[in-house]
Structure formats: C-alpha cells, structure tokens
Amino acid sequence: MYAKVFSSSGLRFFAHAPGAPKCALAEESPAHHLLKLELAAAAREAGAHAELEVRGPDGAWRADVLASDPAGAWRTALEAQLSPITPDDIAARTERMLEDGVSSVWFSDRVRAPWFGTVPWARVETVDGALAIREGLAKFSGKHWEAGPQGVPAAEFLRWVFAGRVVSHRRRAPVRSPLPAWGTLWTAPQYREAETAYLDAEERRKREREEQERALRLRWRQEQQLQMQRDQERTRAEGGHKAAVQTLLARQAALEIPVAQFVHRETGSYPFVSDKGAPEYAMGVPVYVGPTPYGVVCPVASRMAALRDRLAPLVIFVASEGERRRIAAQTRPDQRIEVLRA
Q1: What are phi and psi of 135, to 5 degrees?
Q2: How confident is the model at residue 23 (pLDDT cuts 50, 70, 90)?
C-alpha cells in the first residue's frame, strides 16, 4: 500500500499498490471506505464500541461497522450502502442479521435509493466537514407524518438510536408533503404512540358512525313495518287473496329485525334482507350473508314442494308454530325451520 490524498476533501489514506495481493478492502470505493470510517468514528463518539468488517456466525453476514454496547446489552450494524441494491436483497440481509440478534441501520448519500423506507435507514450528507443526517427522521403532527429535524450530526443521531430516544417505525398513518411516503422512518417513541392513539380513535369513530347508520336503517325499517301494518289493517276487510298477500307481507316485514338479529348471532355478520319476496324463493324474502343466500323469510307453503331441493340448504324463518307445520309438510325431512317472534 502507499499513501495518497483524497482529491475532493484532502483526506489522507493508504491505497493498494498495482498488483498487490487482493484483500477485503481492495474492491471498495474510497467513498464507501470513507463513509465506514465516519460511521465508526460517530459510533465511538456516541459512546459505543465500534469494529469494522465484522463477520457473523458461519459467515452469514458481514457488518461494515458493528457498534455494540460496552456492557454487552445490544449490537447494531452500521451499513454504508452506496452501490445499487434491491429492496428485497437489503431486507433479506437485514433479516439475516436480526436472526443473530443484531439490528441494523443503513446509510447512503444517494438522493432517492429504491430501498429507502424498506429497512431502518438514513440519508447522510457532509455539513461543515462532518457527517450529518439529511433524511430519515420524522414526527407525527396529530393526523399526518411530517419531516423531522435535518442536519443532525451522525454521532448525535446514533446516540439517540443507541439510547432508544428514536426508534425505527413502520408508518401506518399518511404523510404530509414534502415528506415522501416512505414505509419505515425514525421517530421518537411518543410519536409512534401518538399515531397508535390517533388510529385507534379513528377506528372508534368509524365504528360509531356505522352503528349510527345501522340504527337509522333499523328505525326506517320499523317505520316501514308500522306503515305496512296500518296498510294491512285497512285492507283486511277486502278478504280473499289480496288480504292473504298483505298478511304474508306483514309477517315478512315483522320478522325482518328478528331475522337480522338471529343471523348476526349465528354468523357474526349483519345480513342483507331483501325488500320483497321472490318466485324462486316460493315468494319468501331471501336473506343474504355477503353474496351467499342464507335463508328465506315466510315462504308460501303451497309453493314449497316444487322448490324443496333448491331451498333445502337454506334456513326457513316463520312467525308461528302453525306456519312451521304447514311448510314442513312440503319440504324435505332435514329442512331447517326456525320459529321467530316479531
């Protein structure tokens, strides 16, 4: 090796002589090696023990700089990543180190590396001749993530990381421009907790809105049922087929809420109950859980014989024991029939 001076910064260093035997550092660029030295110096300034080019068990990984707690409580790899790498590859390398109990922080001076936000990372720059963090820190403003402090000295940033004052966090809430939508960011624990509290509150508000909307729908259904009952009373005197049809409709309407409650208890889901009967369901009202037919409300007994095989998998809901007996006489023996009270 022989002594050289780095042209852009005046840094003095040793370089391999032409034809010298190959070594682990021979294929590194001066920029990569310089960044490793700066990371090691920053780690030591932050109070950690730092070693360069440390290999993991069985050579499964190699850390550019391995920073560790002097008391042995933790180990963190500081990776200088200036060459191109895919998000999948850098995530796999991170996972291999984690399997051996070594966390990692990946550093680059590239403006927009494709793996930013995939693993714990930070973009660095030189400020007044010293290494500093340009991007990677963020804070939660109540509803959105915003950019955190910039220009933080690398040693100060690592001091925060080692002490747990900032943590690598997988963002769930949206970001506010100009912060790019990176998935993983460095933030203070209180901002991480603030995001969780905000998202929990949003979920509660969403559930409350859904409950209110469901209550309004049920109230509207009840009003419709009352109106149908009043209509049925007005037409009762007409007799004959029309009265029978109105009676059927009233029974079907009166069972709508009990059927919805029954299906919810059985399946854990609120069903969709059609507005009227259908010929393919023996003029009963079909009940769906999602897109799947679940049952039929008050089908006409005289129409059941022709549809017994089609309706066999469904639950038949009726309003009285007498109605159950009339329908059971026209169905298969294993047909499930539930008597509900309006």
Answers
A1: -145, 155
A2: low
Distance CA 235, CA 247 (A): 10
**Cα–Cα distance between 225 and 59 in angstroms, integer?**
74
Residue 97 corresponds to which tokens in the numbers above? 């180190």
- Tally of CA atoms within 13 A in the half-sphere of 35 that contains its CB: 23
Residues with Cβ within 8 Å of 43's Cβ and at least 6 positions away in sequence, in order, are 49, 50, 65, 67, 78, 155, 158
Residue 268 gets which letter from DSSP?
A: S
Residue 342 has pLDDT above 80, yes or no: no
* Contact by Cβ (8 Å): 79, 96: no
3-state SS, one letter per residue, for 42-56:
HHHHCCCEEEEEEEC
User: Are the CB atoms for 249 and 235 separated by under 8 Å?
Assistant: no
Is 287's pLDDT higher than 80? yes
All residues at 6 or more sequence positions from 148 whose CB lies less than 8 Å from its CB, including other chains: 136, 137, 138, 139, 185, 186, 187
E strand intervals along 208-290: 272-273, 285-289
pLDDT band, residue 239 (cuts 50/70/90): low
Segment 153-174 mean pLDDT: 97
